Amino acid sequence: MYLGLDLGTSGLRALLVDGAGVPVDSVSESYATANPHAGWSEQDPAVWVAAVDKVLTQMAAQHPGEMAAVQGIGVSGHMHGAVCLDAAGSVLRPCILWNDTRSFSEAAALDGTDQVRALSGNIVFPGFTAPKLAWMAAHEPELFERVATVLLPAGYMNHHLTGELFADMSDSAGTSWLDVGARDWSEVLLGAGGMTRGQMPRLVEGSEVGGTLRPDLAQKWGMKGTVSVVGGAGDNAASACGVGAMKEGEGFVSLGTSGVLLTGRDGYAPLPESAVHTFCHAVPGQWYQMGVILAATDSLNWLSRVTGASPADLSRELGEEITGPARLRFLPYLSGERTPHNDARVRGGFLNIEQATDRRAMTQAVMEGVAFALADCALALEKTGADLRSLLAIGGGTASSYWVQTIATVLGKPLDLPAAGDFGAALGAARLAMVGCGAGSVDEIMVKPEVRATVQPVAELKEAYAEAFAAYRASYPAIRDLA
């Protein structure tokens, strides 16, 4: 048996799988995020510790025999967060999360530093880890001086489970301290951010054993014998492992809180100026690239809060089939935007509102705006040479047939819908544990899910959506300086 832990922004999920990788059961626990100031987003790592204890205690009560047979654990975590430990291993301050934008000035300064983009393979985004520590140095110098180790959220969970300090390549690639091509910490990048190699955890591949579960925790959760804890992965790399998007031409569109268009890469091909993320994959010798938009289903959730109608009700009003783009246009920059703009300050809006505009029109515009933002990501990825020939559609937003058909038509690519099942980040983390424990090779374990349907682009509407997309792309430079 194997466990995958998905440490998300809003909660932690534990997935138990058998020796064939088939899910047995899952348990989840939610927690809150603190926003003490505008643009700030923080969590106390103690809530993650409490959550993992609660879910695994419950799992042990429900499946004592299976938990006793657990051989390996993999952790997936939300990326870019900064957990700072002092020399005694105590947490110095709440973790600054991926969606925290306070360090935009520090990010810009690091991004303009010689060799930073060339070595990291990426723009330094405000959400990345390095600018967070630069912000601490400027605004919390007493705490910064006490930082002995910086861990990412998944790395902190690994530390809690094993007592050791290690992190995987895929997660570490989002810090702006890792030489992503060489898969190692960079002295140049660390120096640019005022950090040292001694403050970094030991690097392992995501499918490599980094430590063993503490005996007290194993006993508490009913596990027998030695339980290996592998490097794990950042959440998107883990999701790619869960759906088998490992190699060139294998990818997915994720309609979650944020939106992701990701593809595996057989080699290292960065293009930082495109605002595409180029990261190490969770397994040796592979990389992945992705375009990220900050508000996908979050845009529909926002409209739901404003209108008082549930997201499902809003979607239901549109029906199942698209008939052509709306004149109303929505720009989904509710929290700024990453790909392709790298703009933390821009904000979203509606264009072409008129007297006849109603809730249905606004819902359609929101879904189309997210689809256009993902098409922006596709253009950026294709500039790097990425092949987007095979794409799965995953995430909560895919429950809307209308939305999936819109995205397929805007991208001009068929989208495969997986059969019902469990194939997200928690499964990817469990699969990494399986590989690390010798249950099979990457090719044998990281397989694609069964496809229940393929959504084709609507050929006769392709030109109309292309014109609407061109108008959407022209909107950003027009509103950029108005925010």
From TrEMBL:
Positions of the record's site feature: Important for activity? 6
Question: What would you give as a GO molecular function for this chain, any one?
Answer: D-xylulokinase activity
Q: Which reaction does it catalyse?
A: D-xylulose + ATP = D-xylulose 5-phosphate + ADP + H(+)
Task: Write down the InterPro entries for this protein, in alphabetical order.
Answer: ATPase_NBD, Carb_kinase_FGGY, FGGY_C, FGGY_Carb_Kinase, FGGY_N, Xylulokinase
- Enzyme Commission number, as recorded: 2.7.1.17
Give the residues annotated as active site: 235 (proton acceptor)
Q: Which residues form the Carbohydrate kinase FGGY N-terminal domain?
A: 1-242
User: Boundaries of each Carbohydrate kinase FGGY C-terminal domain copy?
Assistant: 252-436
What's a single GO BP term from this record?
D-xylose metabolic process
Q: Which UniProt keywords apply?
A: ATP-binding, Carbohydrate metabolism, Kinase, Nucleotide-binding, Transferase, Xylose metabolism
Q: Where does substrate bind?
A: 79-80
Q: Name one Pfam family in it.
A: FGGY_C
Cited function? Catalyzes the phosphorylation of D-xylulose to D-xylulose 5-phosphate.
Per the record, the similarity remark reads:
Belongs to the FGGY kinase family.
- This one is known as Xylulose kinase
Q: What is the lineage of its organism?
A: Bacteria, Pseudomonadati, Pseudomonadota, Alphaproteobacteria, Rhodobacterales
Q: Which gene encodes it?
A: xylB
